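Long-time lurker. I teach an intro course on protein structure, and each term I like to show students one example going from raw sequence to a predicted 3D structure in token notation. This year I'd like something fresh instead of my usual example. Would anyone be willing to generate the tokens for the chain below so I can use it in lecture? Attribution to the forum is fine with me.
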Amino acid sequence: MINTEQKTNRLSNEKSPYLLQHAYNPVDWYPWEPEAFNKAQSENKPIFLSIGYSTCHWCHVMERESFEDPEVAELLNRYFISIKVDREERPDIDHIYMEFCQALTGSGGWPLTILMTPEKKPFFTGTYFPKQRRYGRAGLMDILSQIGELWKSDEKKIRQSAEEIFNMITSHKADIRLQPLTSPTENDFEAWAREILETAYQTFSKTFDRHYGGFGCAPKFPSPHNLTFLLRYAQDHTDEKAAKMVRTTLDMMGKGGIYDHIGFGFARYSTDEKWLVPHFEKMLYDNALLAIAYLESYQYQHQPQDDRKAQEIFSYILRDMTSPEGGFYSAEDADSEGIEGKFYVWTPNEIQFILGAEHGDLYCQAYDITEEGNFEGKNIPNLLPADWDTLASSAGLSYDSLRKQLEESRLKLFLARDKRIHPHKDDKILTSWNGLMIAALAKGAQILADPSYSEVAEKAVSFISNTLYTKKRLLARYRDGEAAHLGYLDDYAFLIWGLLELYMATGKLQHLEFALTLQEEQEKLFLDLESGGYFLTGSDAEELLIRPKEIYDGALPSGNSVSALNLLRLARLTGDNHWEKRAEEQLFAFRSNLSDHPSGYTAFLQALQFAMNQSKEIVLAGDLLHSDLPEMKKIFFSAFRPYSTLLYHEGSLGRLIPWVKDYPVESDKVTAYVCENFSCHKPVHAPAEFSLLLDEKH
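-- Reply from a regular --
Happy to contribute to a lecture. Here you go:
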């Protein structure tokens, strides 16, 4: 906890909420800056590097136990130069040192703890360490004192170890070469792609939890790109099992405690197989990607719970996670008052005090609130055991009346909960995660035919273009009036994705223009001309130990995966052979990576799925304000068409995409042109005709 009466350290001058949380530690912290490394070299001290983020539960634990402790601080200040890094502001640094940690220990996580030479080469890695030995983990006091003394007595041995570790990691990376930038034959590529897609599907099929959804055992992460991959697989193969995996997972997550049934929004992951007990922090990116998954599932299966869940996620984001300027905040903490989950849990007495005995008892039955509790003696509201039909019958209510009453109870509980001490909100605005939410909101506008969502997304784009885009360069973070850190690949790739979805939702040419501008800049800054793919950092960025490149789709899809699909969509939208060639190169570059473990790259696989399917391009030519256009858009977005592109030719599109000049624009009607597999159907004007034309084949 922060004690403002204590003396501050250098972190008090930073903008990062995570670094500011440590500004009153007795540790003599430095941010990642030249001064720290110069001091380490001039005093010949090793570096203690601690990487985390402001809503990380175990980061808070390690701070309370160790970094606020004078004994630990004395050891750190005596033996080391100590550096704090916010992984969300500096994903490049986090990526590099997490790779070392995983290679040396077989696992990783946050807080990430690195001991390294003044030249930034690690010799000891780990994650959370208690102050004294506990949980089978070495104590931080012992580690610091032993290594501090060893550096004094045998510095050469430690430096030699660091050099060996560095050489091992870099030689291993050199061995995993990307495919040379030569195109295989079309038949070879198609055969490989089909095999890769099938292998990934079979992996999910084997690991699918038939009872609770998701894949594998606890802990369970939502990983929405796995679900959107399976939706495309289900459509391509008319596969009921793939669709069932998506249906079960979305339904069980939506019923579980991982979902906040009172205030909406999803937590980061579930600690159990049933999605009951979450790690309570809420991340912007999870909610953006899950909104997309629910929306696409709604397109595919037309289940009302998907529509409802997406709208509830957006309600949470607009209420709690949107800045007055229009950008979206990053996360909400798992802890409040130093206790994980305290803000979110209930007892039956609390519920009945707020709702009254009758309504309180009904709510408790509906949401699994019991005297025994389901989480440390208290209760996480959930619908896992719920049978609302039986409950309605026993209460003498219709199903609709029960739902209405429970919604009224939810609103009362929300207002009561709002008076509790809230978890910490990380209010920095990250370009990359904002790009994901822009994409989600734009899809909401498309699929739910609600233009208010695209208006919110456009406000976020305006905020980014005005505050985080300068001198033809995206910046990564905004907070408290300051934009900082050169943008990373993810900032470009995710924002381009959002802009493409926003163009599809609105038809406004400036969104497509901005997407093309950013893609051109991405090529110049991040492209690996030797091996293909994109580096995480730009050519103008700080030179680090390694220039990282990421393809794995973990909690977030990688920038390389999203870029592969962006390039394909730009190629089909513009008809520009340059983007077609770049898309092919991107797909071919990572063949060896995908072959090793296809199910770890499901966002990238969606680019493969796009490339493997016949193209279908739709042009709606006419005034964007024409009365027929909303109905035509509704028809197009009512079905799941993941491989179709939509252009709006309102008269000015030809200056960006020359080939559309052949399509006349008439002021009194909207003309729909549908082309697929390199041939075009006869143009139609009436919405009903457009619907029939699309329904011939999705």
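Some talking points for your students: The chain has 25 helices and 20 strands. The longest strand covers residues 473-479.
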